[in-house]
Amino acid sequence: MDHTHIVIGGGTYGCFTALILAERFPGARILVVEEEADLMRRASYNNQARVHNGYHYPRSVLTALRSRVNAPRFAAEFGDAIYADFAQYYAISRHRSNVTAGQFEQFCRRIGAELKPAPLAVRRLFDEDFVEAVFWVREYAFDAVKLRARLRERLDASGIEVLTRYSAVKLAVEEAGRRFRVELRNLESGETEQRRAAWVYNCTYSRLNEILASGGFETVRLKHEATEMALIEVPPELRGIGITVMCGPFFSLMPFPPEGLVALSHVSYTPHYEWRDDPAGGWSVPHRPAFPLQSWFDRMRRDAARYVPALRECRYVRSLWEVKTVLPESGANDSRPILFKRDSSAPNLISLLGGKIDNIFDLADVLPGPEDDQLPARAAPAVAALREG
Ligand SMILES: Cc1cc2nc3c(=O)[nH]c(=O)nc-3n(C[C@H](O)[C@H](O)[C@H](O)COP(=O)(O)OP(=O)(O)OC[C@H]3O[C@@H](n4cnc5c(N)ncnc54)[C@H](O)[C@@H]3O)c2cc1C
Fold first, then answer.
1. Is residue 54 part of a domain?
2. Which of 101, 237, 320, 332 could form a disulfide with 46 if both were Cys (CB 3.0 to 4.6 A apart)?
């Protein structure tokens, strides 16, 4: 029997999309296809685990304001996946920063985000020659393993079928765009099978264009980075705190709850290199970085220790490697919009790209409901909406 909806990609976005659809289309057959051995093993795990609360985006007030709405919602809905057992500090660099301490304070007031001067003991962890001011802020981390468990429970309770270790390898339209055929490869046996659905949701993050190109659909402009975050153990004086140095080519320290470690990332050294998918240049063979690359942990530590000297004593454990995908527009102002794109020839094919975890709540505004189901596929308008998130 055909499915009503097939969601390709079992990350946070694919799972949340499936859950919204289950609510909107009672009784619909929904399938989530994920190529890893479990849900949420890719970007939804390999990230900095920050539940953005606005502070990070002085250059994109819209993204900051959406974060102020979505972060508390995320905390309320996924309470036990929230990790709040640390104090979060934002430090303002004296050199090469896009904001001064005064501007940062003003920005936080403008977006209604709480902050106060860091206590002296914390201030002393920073080299004054490099850091103008340090603020305590209210911002949390999330535990991707606990989030996965919560999403999995909800998927099961909603009767959504989940296939792991299956890769969607080809997408085709049938019946003039009214129905899709998705070719799946079982990664254990190597065999392929066909599944059909009225709607397909492409939630593959860095691989959106691979899916689109497999069926000859129009691709989208995307920027990708091959990223590294170092998981480390910090010396005693840095335990229980998070640090973000603003606003430019600096570093962050965030708790990484699933492994009880700390993630060190650096604006200059976390991205090893970048590439772009540009439909204008034609679609070519997709690039997959040869992870793990040669680690840049030493560069991250050397630079970060200029600001926080105690970091010289941190211990490297391993690196998280992931492709980070953003819209090319995001580079200019650091915004994190959500991409929602309906294919112009087959509007029931929807591609979604979320810039950060808490933006999942914006999906409710863009996903279809039963009223859209009544539209003949060709009459539905092609919508390519960029929503600030
Ligand atoms: C280095 C880095 C740091 C980040 N830091 C933060 C942060 O601190 N806070 C924050 O909110 N966000 C952060 N982000 C962004 C955040 O990780 C992403 O916005 C989010 O994880 C996207 O979720 P997703 O479900 O779209 O992607 P994913 O979790 O990658 O899910 C896509 C899924 O699709 C599957 N897939 C792909 N192709 C196929 C196929 N053909 N067949 C079947 N399955 C397929 C993949 O295996 C994967 O599981 C960061 C990202 C990176 C890379």
1. no
2. 320
Residue 23 and residue 66 share a domain: no
Beta strands, E only, 24-174: 30-34, 50-51, 82-83, 87-93, 115-117, 131-137, 140-142, 161-164, 166-174
pTM: 0.95
Please report the atom of ligand 1 found closest to the CA of residue 353.
Answer: 26
Q: Note the pLDDT tens digit of each residue in 138-196.
A: 999 999 999 999 999 999 999 999 999 999 999 999 987 789 999 999 999 999 999 99
Q: Which domain range does residue 170 map to? A: 1-49+143-220+332-389
Whether residue 341 has its Cβ less than 6 Å from ligand 1: no
- Residue 329, pLDDT score: 81
Ligand 1: does its nearest atom lie under 6 Å from the Cβ of 203?
yes
Q: Are residues 300 and 341 in the same domain?
A: no
182: Cβ below 6 Å to ligand 1? no
63 lines ligand 1 (CB under 6 A): no
Contact residues for 23 (Cβ-Cβ < 8 A; gap 6+)? 158
DSSP SS3 for 247: coil
- Residues 294-319, mean pLDDT to the nearest whole number: 98
Task: Take atom 18 of ligand 1 and give the residue whose Cα is closest.
Answer: 356
